[in-house]
Fold:
Amino acid sequence: MDHRASLSSVRLLVKLRWLAVAGQALTVLIVTRGMGVALWQPPLWCGIAALAMFNLHAARYARTRRNAGHRLVFTHLLVDITSLAWMVGWSGGIENPFSSLFLLPLALCILALPGGWMWTGAGASIAGYAVAVLAGRAVPHVHGMMGDTFNLHMLGMLVSFAVSALVVLVFFARMAVARRDSERQLARLREQFARDEGILALATHAASVAHELNTPLGTLTLMVEDLAAQAQSDVQREEFATLKELLEICRDRVRELAAPAEASAAGTAPLAVDLAQVIERWQLIRPAIELRRSGSLQGLRKVDAAVGHLLQALLNNAADAGQQRGMARVDLHIEAAGGGGLRASIRDYGGGFDADHPLLPGRLFRTSKPDGLGIGLVLSHATVERLGGELSMQPAAEGQGVMVSFVLPSLVRA
Structure:
């Protein structure tokens, strides 16, 4: 059990303890005043008051804490065992039908504590029962409206069973819910770990490929410059200028692959890029795509380079989806959010959702596009998670297509 689960157990014990305080007070009143049993009341009321005072402190402590350890859970159970031993000992000992409640701390130890703590808690519960039985104060003989002492004992056993069943049911139900939540979280973490491992392997391979591409890209740039110098018409010179600009973009992207690692090694801030330039560069690479843009970036220009990669990946996905259906169009709404954040929505005109594929894939190389690599959306999702934002997908409001939206907090730089 982790620290959060331990804190959940502590908070549940606090709630159950309030029920115990109310139940003990009500039982003492009914037995002493309603049934006329001559119990010595001062120790009983002192025990109830002490348990209530402890629970006030425990409730305030549990509200302010974010995690707890096994020692704290054991301490709470030890207090409950001590309180129960005190109450049972002063109200009949082994003759008290509520002595069977010592099984409850034993069950709670099994559920809420690991091996060593569990056995220690079980020993404390058994010791508390033994003390209450051996040193208990006998109940005087009773004759009244409930019959003799035996009839009163049977009634107490019935109430004790009902209380035990209720507590066990509540605690077991909460523990079962907590366990299912933990299993779901563990499955999600495993899937995220597998995805991150794939991304790390992909990044390592990308760095190697970037190193290999740098030289041929430089050679191609020189060749294009020579060809442009020999061009005999304005059309040819314009085409070579476009080729050179595209090669420069490729070389810049290759250099950007190493920039985050260099910044991390030097202890400097990550590379920042201009969002407007990122969008313009994307339009240059995809001139056949009609980009309809809305929103304002006023007051927010420079962002982490990862945000630029995220935006380009989502634009490429949207463009590819639209081209598959002959709709070379992408709608982009991007604007600065409050507190230095960023909000964007990219709508494509593709075929919409594929029922055979999850909306936000959790692993690499799973795609519905014929020529897709299956990494764009996964990398985008991972980037948004790393930056503390949210990524969502939903059908387009009108017609076919998908709307991909993301919101990033104030991690971008103005």
